[in-house]
Design goal:
about 110 residues; mainly beta; nine-stranded antiparallel β-sheet; two-stranded antiparallel sheet; 1 helix
Amino acid sequence: MKKKVFLITFLICAATVFSQNIIEYNGKKINGLDENNNQTGIWKLFDEENKVLITCEFKNGEYVSNTNFYKDSKLIASYNNEDKLEIYKDSKTITCNFHRKEDNSTTLY
């Protein structure tokens, strides 16, 4: 379980710092920037070899959807981009919360 939480936490951090020019993935344009260099539209991080996909949506550089994590096309976790991460395993949902400290670091509970 700790390994899975670590992986999801790592992927959240990667999604937050990931940026690039717009690309085409499966016939759709993703990972776009607007004229002010703000993230806009659907953003995806993917590793086709390991069958991992992370998706979220932006408007004017702001999140407008949860960040969703998929493994083998199955939703395994969802992050509300603020303080709550839900991990889906079998028929259970495990809810974790992030606590932001004064130094801006975060801890997952």
